[in-house]
Amino acid sequence: MRRHYFDIIFTLTLFALYTTIALSLSTIGAQVYTNTAQTLSSNFDQRTSVLYVTQKLRQNDVSGLIRVEQLGDGDALVFTEVYEDQSYETWFYVADGFLREVLMLAGDQPDANYGQAIMPMQSMAVDSQRLSDGVLTISFIQLDGSVSVVDIHLQSLNSEQYQGALDER
Asked: Is this model's pTM higher than 0.85 or not?
């Protein structure tokens, strides 16, 4: 009788230990999955915003009419292009927690909340100190506080067309 009593206690203890370990592993697995998903999402936002703006800079590097402006509390990248004898400007800036883009007639000043929201972002800072060397440095600060800095060499900044556009301003 006494032997059955110890067998039952041993079986229940073993079952409780197994259950505790299984729940612990499930909890740890869920935390690892959550952290991994958050990291992947953050990396996606970070890379996508950098690649989007970089690609737009390279597409508009043909005319050389790229400048830095102030819009609201932050910096804005402005690309000027001429289409059918009309000048248009594409503005990239951060407002209300989003990287935004707006296309408008040259000379118009965009409203900070007017542009199309592209990606969530805290801020974007453009350093144009090396612009005379053809290098533009852009810092992207994501909502989670992570920072991406990219240096972009703009080939058209040394062109005669660009220098003429600078002289006109």
From this structure: no
